Amino acid sequence: xxxxxxxxxxxxxxxxxxxxxxxxxxxxxxxxxxxxxxxxxxxxxxxxxxxxxxxxxxxxxxxxxxxxxxxxxxxxxxxxxxxxxxxxxxxxxxxxxxxxxxxxxxxxxxxxxxxxxxxxxxxxxxxxxxxxxxxxxxxxxxxxxxxxxxxxxxxxxxxxxxxxxxxxxxxxxxxxxxxxxxxxxxxxxxxxxxxxxxxxxxxxxxxxxxxxxxxxxxxxxxxxxxxxxxxxxxxxxxxxxxxxxxxxxxxxxxxxxxxxxxxxxxxxxxxxxxxxxxxxxxxxxxxxxxxxxxxxxxxxxxxxxxxxxxxxxxxxxxxxxxxxxxxxxxxxxxxxxxxxxxxxxxxxxxxxxxxxxxxxxxxxxxxxxxxxxxxxxxxxxxxxxxxxxxxxxxxxxxxxxxxxxxxxxxxxxxxxxxxxxxxxxxxxxxxxxxxxxxxxxxxxxxxxxxxxxxxxxxxxxxxxxxxxxxxxxxxxxxx
Length: 479
Known about the structure:
- It is a single chain.
- With 479 residues, this protein is an alpha/beta fold.
- The chain has a domain at 3-174: NAD(P)-binding Rossmann-like Domain (Rossmann fold, 3-Layer(aba) Sandwich), CATH 3.40.50.720.
- The chain has 13 helices and 15 strands.
- It has a nine-stranded mixed β-sheet.
- Helix 5 runs parallel beside helix 6 (151-164), helix 6 (151-164) runs antiparallel to helix 12 and helix 7 packs parallel to helix 9.
- The chain is globular.
């Protein structure tokens, strides 16, 4: 049966209701590279991964270049809702002969059998449907952080990874750099133990700083650019009229589209703490400070406290998150100089500017205090006198065998295992979803880790699932 004779929407409805015990293989697929789809969708180690890139401007363009520069993939499709925008032209010019699409659904309709994997570098609200579509087609997925915008969307993506048997990777690059291997080695050697508290801070200017917090409605409608597919850009989210303050990075400001400072930077600061301390999901989230709270976009400053219970022999942990220009936390005695790791990649096309206290974290145990930066920045023991006492006990830290992008592609070939698959990155992303709910509602939330329900706030519990998806996008929420 030819691809064009099959409705994409019918395929999704059939795929998501198929048996969870096997990988879904659409009936219309034809052999790729003269071979049929194997029971495991891994690519031959001797081949390059045929990669479709979805989102090719701004951060999506940076991801495209990073994946291509590994030498492990062929770029076989370009997809972006605005192929005429200035920020998409560099990738189009770099790959002039590669097929182009504005709608990811039409891309899969046209050439699913020529794609092994996809990268998803689009606004937060669009991660979910694209990823679910790709996984249902048996495609491996690299998706930017955070995984999705709602708790339930992340939950479905975790289930999809398991159901479809594909390789997944969330794009928190530090998970393949120094801090990942150092934290693991120090934990195994007993240097990091009995952690009771963590402070994480990101106090750089955000796009919404300076906006009027007394806003009473979304911005007024503007003409949709002729080159932009606004309907596909909206995706699952309820209808909004186009406004330039919704696109090109501005989406991060709004609860309806983005995940704010926490979703943007939380994974770069807390990923190793979350994974290696086996934190899972919090039992309480408390927004102890919200400056200029409003129901549309994020507060100018936030302090959130996440409480995690005891886990086996590990004590309970409180994580305190700070953002905002005037909301800088105090640091422990002997902290030293606050520096920015030069290895942190550009943010929005430029380097992050030095602040009074740069993005980072402090980890408090019963005996030691650790100072850390963002992304792959290594930890240090503070103060210096204490560092000297433990220096002889520090284990050798192995070097990373591959960067985050190569790790994904090598995992598609079966040569490595992904370091930030949905099974690992999903619960971390859900922590951020819960934090955003507490910001949006301005309320303390009590969370049952077993039932995955908010027990003290009926509206917040409903908001774990978000609004009903727009008509035509409902099938992505059935698996």
